[in-house]
UniProtKB/TrEMBL annotation:
Residues 99-129 form the Rho termination factor-like N-terminal domain. It comes from Stutzerimonas kunmingensis. The lineage of its organism: Bacteria, Pseudomonadati, Pseudomonadota, Gammaproteobacteria, Pseudomonadales. It comes from the Bacteria. InterPro entries: Rho-like_N (IPR011112). This is Rho termination factor N-terminal domain-containing protein. Residues 1-30, 49-80, 102-132 have a biased composition (Basic and acidic residues). One of its GO terms (biological process) is DNA-templated transcription termination. Residues 1-132 are annotated as: Disordered. Residues 88-100 have a biased composition (Low complexity).
Length: 132
């Protein structure tokens, strides 16, 4: 059973969770399990509740976008039977997720290594964009 209140989720996220839950129930998954899987899916795709006053661990839009893209690529690869370690053409997408987890100072060091112009005045999101 999913824990916590769901008031921090947008209406769109709640509708998405309901739709996913119904889909699981049609496939014979028990109601509690279907609800838990649905909220886990919404959290994975969007990073959790998006209303103000959330968990305090919010990620920037750029980081969320990079993680969603990476997740979608891994799902597509899995459907085609590719294992994550087969050296697919998307090896750089895992880098973008790793970049999103870095601090600004770590990103600045990478930007320095790649000699990116204007890096000293960039914010973390701008560094992420420049490096990916």
């Amino acid at each position: 059973m999913p824990r916590g209140e769901k008031t921090k989720y947008t209406d769109k996220q709640q509708r998405k969770a309901e739709h996913i839950e119904e889909s699981y129930e049609k496939r014979g998954v028990p109601e509690d399990e279907a609800e838990a899987r649905a909220w886990a899916t919404v959290n994975k795709q969007s990073g959790g509740g998006e209303r103000k006053g959330g968990s305090g661990r919010s990620k920037g839009e750029t980081a969320k976008r990079a993680e969603r893209k990476d997740s979608a690529h891994r799902t597509a690869d899995a459907r085609q039977g590719k294992s994550p370690n087969k050296g697919s053409a998307r090896s750089s997408t895992s880098t973008s997720t790793a970049l999103a987890d870095m601090t600004r100072d770590q990103l600045m060091e990478k930007a320095r290594e790649r000699d990116i112009r204007g890096r000293s005045k960039m914010r973390k999101n701008e560094l992420l964009r420049a490096l990916s």
